[in-house]
């Protein structure tokens, strides 16, 4: 019997990163219709950083959360609607309560891979409201398989009904995925999933590795639409899974049509793997750092790539932008010392 | 000890397909310099279909073979220069003789995967001239591992000093590569190589699979520059090989610089995986058919993707464009019959 895989499609959420959260009403409508036609089981929508994240600091959405959820709900019937929820950005009282009212089906509650405990109340709230709650572990390459399992178990104990690990920096090779997903699939009673990024050209094969190691949930984004080097390209994923005999329930021709619609409507140029994306993947550093790193490189006269590797050595995570200056200053000092001989 | 991999870079040859063979003198100069600086061991140059192929039929080059070889030779010092040679396009008397005089180091002599015997005289000539001759088996997914080995052995017996199999349709998944390269590496006394295309997002991991199965030569093209979904992206390959402890001798930062130079000079938009590329990979059909297939689809009112799958079933190879019409007509007839009930 064919192995069944549940595909979650974050095109209208992770893809928002690629356009500074400016996806238009027309884009939401066009893509929800296309995904629904292709029988994509779950469509994730919202600001790149999820519900309640629109702000001066991380970027303001052109649409409110309320608008996005209403527009998407109107065009998703068979497909379930999911949102990304980061405690800290997303409050329970203001945001989650309203999201429940607006008909969100699946709440994907994400934390840094070693901070699962801040997801406790959010997961609880969603379950109490009778909705589906998943736990998402971001930047998962920064934790060992054993630590990931511990963190995932916390989320499971709070009521999470699935765990998805994200390769936020696109740092994994297939063996890394096999090891981590294998550990989670063995140690958890709930389904396990994988969300890839393509910095090292591995997003699709990493997803295959995840399934072979026991994952049953895979994220894929049309045309790879997403930040930096992009996410796992959904239509390629569907083709490869079909070839391997994994059943996604998604119609191949219709998902190829969805790619054409995305190209015409909101994604004229597909993401590609830039030199800095590669460095970001190798260093295991969030590619969202690219812009401040480039600025610091110019200010201090050092190589942006050295800054990335320096950040990787210091295990920098999102929010630690101040580390960029610190690393750049160190590199500039070393360079000056070397020049003096 | 680190495993040593010999990288051949067909950017200035396979990439020519992506720009209808219009790569300019400036592009050749800029990229030869960049590749040389990055210590790329072998740089392949020329018309997309190789020496002597420029013609009305397959596309006219903006530069003559003579120009290309002279310009490239002038800017390649440590890096060796290679050319792609298809007997039929490339004659011994006119083309190969002159290529030897102009200082080509490596002659990569390619045939369809089941027609190695037409490479006999070309390989012989190159060896007699004291130059290096490799045998290239194109569209290699169309032969079983055993047949590929037979064909490769013929080339070896003619004097080929290496065998490279090409995944011309981007049809392989890693296990396919493992099986074929493993068979060749076991059965041949000469080095074995792999040339990937990215139709199913597998080019980099297929190259890794090739090395793990015994290949020591891998082709990679900057920014994946090549026909359709593109070739194996060279700078990603170098990064991943470095991470895996395979030694390419290529400088990572300098090859990343080369990608920036390519972007600015001749490749503003990197190749991406289009819906038709995916179908081409799944069907195992040369993606160069895309345009005539689109035309036939319009003429006969049928789906281009159905034509591709139809061509795949008939094992269509380049040059058999007439099959496209045949398949399109069949599909149209079936459609008409179905409409009648």
* CATH homology superfamily name of the largest domain in chain A: Aldolase class I
Label the overall shape of chain A: globular
CATH class of the largest domain in chain A: Alpha Beta
Query: How many H/I helical runs of chain A?
Result: 14
Radius of gyration of chain A: 19 Å
What topology emerges from the helices and strands here?
Two copies of one chain form a homodimer.
Chain A: E1 3-4, E2 6-10, H1 11-18, H2 25-37, E3 42-45, H3 65-75, E4 80-85, H4 92-101, E5 106-112, H5 120-128, E6 132-138, H6 145-158, E7 163-166, H7 174-187, E8 192-195, H8 203-212, E9 217-219, H9 234-244, E10 246-247, H10 252-265, H11 275-283, H12 290-300, H13 304-313, H14 321-340
Parallel strand pairs in A: 1-10, 2-3, 2-9, 3-4, 4-5, 5-6, 6-7, 7-8, 8-9
Catalytic activity (chains A, B): (S)-4-hydroxy-2-oxopentanoate = acetaldehyde + pyruvate
GO molecular function (chains A, B): 4-hydroxy-2-oxovalerate aldolase activity
Binding site for Mn(2+) (chains A, B): 14, 195, 197
Tell me what the structure shows.
Chains A, B: Keywords: Aromatic hydrocarbons catabolism, Lyase, Manganese, Metal-binding. Chains A, B: One of its GO terms (molecular function) is 4-hydroxy-2-oxovalerate aldolase activity. Chains A, B: Its EC number is 4.1.3.39. Chains A, B: This is 4-hydroxy-2-oxovalerate aldolase. Chains A, B: It catalyses: (S)-4-hydroxy-2-oxopentanoate = acetaldehyde + pyruvate. The structure is a homodimer of 341-residue chains. The first copy, chain A, is α/β, with parallel strands linked by helices. The first copy, chain A, folds into 2 domains: 263 residues, TIM Barrel; 66 residues, Helicase, Ruva Protein, domain 3 (Orthogonal Bundle), CATH 1.10.8. Helices cover 48% and strands 13% of the residues of chain A. Chain A contains 14 helices and 10 strands. In chain A, strands 2-3-4-5-6-7-8-9 form an 8-stranded parallel beta barrel, surrounded by 7 helices. Chain A has a two-stranded parallel ribbon with strand order 1-10. In chain A, β6, α6 and β7 form a beta-alpha-beta unit. In chain A, α9 packs antiparallel against α10 and α11 runs parallel beside α13. The longest helix of chain A is centred in the C-terminal third of the chain and has 20 residues. The first copy, chain A, is globular, with a radius of gyration of 19 Å. The N and C termini of chain A lie far apart (68 Å). The model of chain A has no long low-confidence stretch (mean pLDDT 95). At the A-B interface, α8, α9, α10 and α11 of A face α8, α9, α10 and α11 of B.
